[in-house]
Design brief:
single chain; about 1050 residues; mainly alpha; six-stranded mixed β-sheet; 51 helices; 9 strands; about 5% strand; zinc ion binding; repeat; PPR_rpt; TPR-like_helical_dom_sf; DYW_dom
């Protein structure tokens, strides 16, 4: 618990629930309690505090020649001393301290006689020596004197004297006496000599409930919780009736073991003894369920308490934080105040911890203001909580203000502020703070070292910290060692990380996972898998982080077999159902192109978060044939009540862009504006892509103008929209405005400009300006764009020379682009060379076979074309299937070639037949030469009629209102026949038709295409202006 919330580690004991031990710190010197009003001639001194009980009073009545001591452990307190003490508290303290109430007047004389020869003003050591002398003389030393001496040993923090007193007890043959044993056990517990306390207890005969309580407390403080529970069972078997103090200690032991069986058994015993509604026991139950139960258990135990005080409420608040329900703490605080419980420092620490846990800065500021208004003193515990809250909420400057205002600052304060600067990336300030801390005499602890290691941004700093730790003899435990490994990995030194890892004597699962993640980050995938094997050989089971790192390695390496093995291990270890692991599995299978496995993982996930849904949307967005299905996934996500984040919207808008779902895209845009995330960079770029691809370039300009802060990425997205429409004039205007805004273009900007360019002269000018005016060296992508420009302009030799001059030999994209230009210009020889180059680079490139077959067909070499097509079927066996999408009534319809599965197929084909009749009257002649294979002319015409974009357009014509624009998206380039047909349909039907294919956006209107038939005819008007 202390590790999760370090600000609780040093809370004063009076502000903590008695059932929660947040730290095992060294006992501080006992403070003197307030002195009560005493009768004349009386002096008040304090005896050591008993476990969980305030120090009791010893009244020394002064007489003429001697001083009598009346011990409140054995005498009933005066009535006036108890008027402000609750009955339950009083009964516990009187029972615990004495076991029975004795008559005060009868005991005074007995005590006076016993102490007649003992001067209370004597030194403790001298007093013990006097008693030893008396024992050696054969004189009897009374139990009261021995008890008194044990108490003085605790008062004066003198363990050696206490051991001497116990030797007196043993010498008197009283080591089995329960009352004396109780005193000695308490004393040894006070000095944290728990093993000795157990040895003393083992010699007692018939210990009473007070002694049992003392030994239970000793074992709890020793950390031997199972021994404490076993002692409780022995106590029950000895027929000693447990009281509230016993159960408080036993509940602490249960908290240490966190065993549900023990918890239920002890809870049943508490109910059996009628103590469930006791305030102290109930508070301890609440504290126990905080750690070992569910928050529902905590709430039930809390509600059963008859009286709820500040400590109990604070315990419940801490339970909320522990069970990740920190948002409920403010409401609990209001209920606490309504019930009249006043907040103390412990309450404020809980409230601040809740604000830290939820990173709710506003709530944290309100608590801070309330502390100041109420005039509560800000001690180191509250101060540490304030500093921690501001650091966790990302306000390190406010944390610094609180830090400077604190009267006392301990190592926790310094370490918290240091962490704030480290996490904010202000390492220099963190190092200055670290130096100042030592100058003020504060010794760094392991948390300080871990935090300063986080501040290291370069290897030199890390080396200095590492050397400092060695020089000052800092403990290199597993936590510090793991932090060192992480530092070396962040600073790019895998060898340094491995050195620390190898020489670390102890490693836990976090250490192994950190090293594995580092290997993955640096591409050492095989080493990461070897580390997993070594980790398991040493008996350490991987945790969630381990699996996440290794699954990432499988994704990066494309190793689906290792991924499946990890999937099996994660499932067997019970981690397969974790949301983060499920998300990583989806990503791994999607990256490895095993879409069905990804779907299965998603469907079997018991819980899904926004990342799960976003991963599935990403999967669909990266596979063009899954666009309509991806939109359905998004709709299901909304039905499940999952709120999308900007990344989710980015993928959704991409899906809508690919499926021409502009109406649904507009609805998403409106919702994005309402939620206030319209100006997120990812969303802006996705909106620009959506509108441009769906034919709404003007909508893209409007969305761009609404953007408040435009960066290079936003300008590039708008330029790419212009490129999709081959609108070079608009692209140049956008580029000019960008330069006027003061932004510097990058390589992507010029790639967009080249994509929009059609003329060779303009392309050459762009390449020159990119290099000479802006200092940007052309990349392979820029060269391929220039090859495309040259090829379509008919300068095939120049384009081929440019490709051959490229030092990169693996440029299948460039050769494929030139091959397509050869198809347009029917250059068989150049096409053959291009084809051979592509096949050498990628033997399975079906697109190269299809293009080369088309070149043969256009050249009248039908036999060669058919032979090549037969070779493709034999060697590859497949080619990318064409499909087209259209949106009608907020629903995306997907059509494939020759599709007859649509519910309105009959109407669609009837419409196409009617159009064919009209088209032929307009002079349309089907391009049957584009259809390869031995079939009749009629069959070839029928095949052309079944092209997916024609089916989508026909469906739009029969489904959308007359005159409404039709928008279609296709995953491949339109063939020449479909391009000609679409122009004629736009004139016959008097509609605008937008078709987005791999070339760009075609706008068909009144029989003309916006591309000017750029890809479908030979250009001769462009003059090459290249200096040779």
């Amino acid at each position: 618990m202390a590790n999760l919330y370090p600000q609780f580690a040093q809370l004063p004991s009076q502000s903590l629930p008695p059932s929660i031990n947040f730290s095992q710190q060294q006992r501080p010197p006992a403070e003197s309690p307030p002195q009560p009003l005493l009768p004349p001639n009386a002096v008040a001194v304090t005896s050591p505090s008993v476990i969980g009980v305030t120090p009791t009073l010893q009244i020394l009545h002064s007489a003429a020649k001697n001083t009598a001591t009346i011990n409140l452990w054995q005498c009933p307190p005066d009535e006036t001393d108890l008027k402000n003490v609750s009955p339950t508290f009083l009964s516990y303290n009187t029972d615990f301290c004495s076991g029975k109430v004795r008559d005060c007047s009868s005991r005074v004389e007995e005590v006076n006689d016993s102490l007649d020869s003992l001067s209370l003003k004597s030194n403790l050591t001298i007093s013990v020596q006097i008693m030893k002398s008396r024992q050696n003389e054969g004189k009897h030393v009374s139990n009261d004197i021995l008890c008194h001496l044990v108490g003085r040993c605790m008062e004066e923090n003198n363990l050696a004297a206490g051991r001497d007193v116990y030797s007196l007890i043993v010498g008197s043959g009283l080591e089995s006496d329960a009352s004396l044993g109780n005193c000695v056990v308490r004393m040894l517990t006070y000095f944290e000599e728990f093993k000795e306390a157990n040895e003393v207890f083992s010699k007692l005969v018939k210990p009473d409930v007070i002694t049992w309580t003392a030994i239970l407390s000793a074992n709890v403080k020793l950390g031997d919780y199972n021994r404490a529970i076993d002692l409780y069972r022995e106590m029950v078997e000895a027929r000693v009736k447990p009281d509230g103090h016993v159960f408080v200690e036993v509940l602490k032991a249960c908290m240490g073991t966190a065993t549900e069986r023990h918890t239920q058994q002890i809870h049943a015993s508490i109910i059996e003894h009628g103590l469930e509604h006791d305030a102290f026991v109930g508070s301890s139950l609440v504290g126990l369920y905080v750690k070992s139960g569910t928050f529902q258990d905590v709430s039930i135990a809390f509600c059963r308490l008859p009286n709820r005080n500040t400590v109990t409420w604070s315990t419940l608040m801490f339970g909320c934080i522990y069970h990740k329900s920190g948002k409920e703490v403010p409401e609990l605080f209001e209920q606490m105040q309504q019930e009249g419980a006043e907040p103390d420092k412990g309450t404020y620490v809980c409230l601040l911890a809740a604000a830290s846990d939820t990173e709710d800065l506003e709530q944290g500021r309100q608590v801070h203001n309330q502390i100041l208004v109420c005039g509560a003193s800000v001690n180191s515990y509250v101060g540490n909580a304030l500093v921690d809250m501001y650091v966790k909420c990302g306000c390190v400057e406010d944390a610094q203000v609180v830090f400077d205002s604190l009267f006392s600052r301990d190592v926790v304060t310094w370490s918290s502020l240091l962490l704030g600067y480290a996490e904010e990336g202000r390492g220099q300030v963190a190092f200055q703070l670290f130096d100042r801390m030592q100058q003020e005499g504060v010794v760094p602890n392991e948390v300080t070292h871990i935090n300063i290691l986080k501040a290291c941004s370069v290897l030199e700093q890390g080396h200095l910290v590492h050397e400092y730790m060695i020089t000052h003899g800092s403990l290199l435990n597993v936590q510090v060692g793991t932090a060192l490994i992480d530092m070396y990995l962040r600073c790019g030194s895998v060898s340094g990380a491995l050195f620390v890892f190898t020489n670390l004597s102890q490693k836990n699962v976090i250490t192994w996972s950190t090293m594995i993640a580092g290997c993955v980050e640096f591409g050492l995938f095989d080493d990461a898998l070897d580390l997993l094997q070594s980790m398991q050989d040493q008996g350490i089971e991987p945790n969630e982080i381990t699996f996440l790192s290794l699954l990432k390695a499988c994704s990066l390496q494309g190793s689906i077999e290792h991924g499946r093995q990890l999937h099996t291990q994660a499932t067997n270890s019970g981690l397969g159902s974790r949301v983060a692991v499920g998300n990583a599995l989806i990503d791994m299978y999607a990256t490895c192109h095993s879409l069905e496995d990804a779907r299965v993982v998603f469907q079997r996930m018991p819980n899904r978060d926004v990342v799960s849904w976003t991963s599935m949307l990403k999967l669909h967005a990266h596979h063009e044939s899954l666009g309509p299905e991806g939109i359905q996934v998004f709709q299901q996500m909304k039905q499940d009540g999952i709120e999308p984040n900007p990344i989710t919207y980015g993928y959704v808008l991409k899906l809508m862009s690919r499926t021409a779902a502009i109406e649904q895209g507009r609805q998403i845009h409106a919702y994005i504006v309402e939620t206030g995330i319209e100006f997120n960079e990812l969303i802006i770029n996705a909106l620009l892509d959506l509108y441009a691809n769906c034919g709404g370039l003007m909508n893209a300009f409007v969305a761009f103008q609404r953007t408040q802060k435009k960066n290079v990425s936003n300008w590039s997205a708008l330029l790419m929209g212009c490129a999709q429409h081959r609108d070079y004039s608009s692209a140049l205007g956008v580029f000019s405005n960008m330069l006027e805004s003061g932004l510097k273009p990058d390589g992507v900007v010029f790639l967009c400009l080249l994509s929009a360019c059609k003329l060779v002269s303009e392309g050459c000018q762009l390449m020159k300006s990119m290099r000479d005016d802006h200092g940007i060296l052309p990349t392979l992508e820029h060269q391929n764009s220039m090859v495309d420009i040259l090829g379509h302009a008919g300068y095939l030799d120049e384009a081929e020379d440019l490709l051959e001059c490229n030092p990169s030999s693996s440029n299948a994209v460039g050769w494929t682009s030139l091959l397509h230009a050869c198809k347009v210009h029917i250059d068989v020889d150049t096409a053959k060379r291009c084809f051979n180059n592509v096949v050498v680079l990628d033997p399975k490139a079906s697109s190269a076979f299809v293009l080369m077959s088309s070149v043969y067909s256009h050249a009248g070499m039908l036999h060669s074309g058919e032979e090549l097509e037969a070779r493709r079927r034999k060697e590859i066996g497949w080619k990318k299937l064409a499909h087209s999408c259209i949106e009608v009534d907020n629903e995306v319809h997907n059509f494939r070639v020759g599709d007859k599965l649509h519910c309105r197929s009959a109407d669609i084909y009837a419409k196409l037949d009617a159009l064919n009749v009209q088209l032929k009257k307009e002079g349309y002649a089907p391009r049957v030469d584009l259809v390869l294979g031995p079939m009749s002319k009629e069959k070839k015409e029928e095949a052309l009629c079944g092209h997916s974009e024609k089916l989508a357009i026909a469906f739009g014509l029969i489904s959308l209102p007359h005159g409404m624009t039709i928008r279609v998206s296709k995953n491949l380039r339109m063939c020449g026949d479909c391009h000609n047909t679409s122009k004629l349909i736009s004139r016959i039907e008097k509609r605008d038709i937008f078709v987005n294919d791999t070339y760009g956006v075609h706008r068909f209107s009144e029989g003309v295409c916006s591309c000017d038939d750029y890809c479908y005819q030979i250009f001769k008007g462009d003059v090459l202006q290249v200096k040779r």
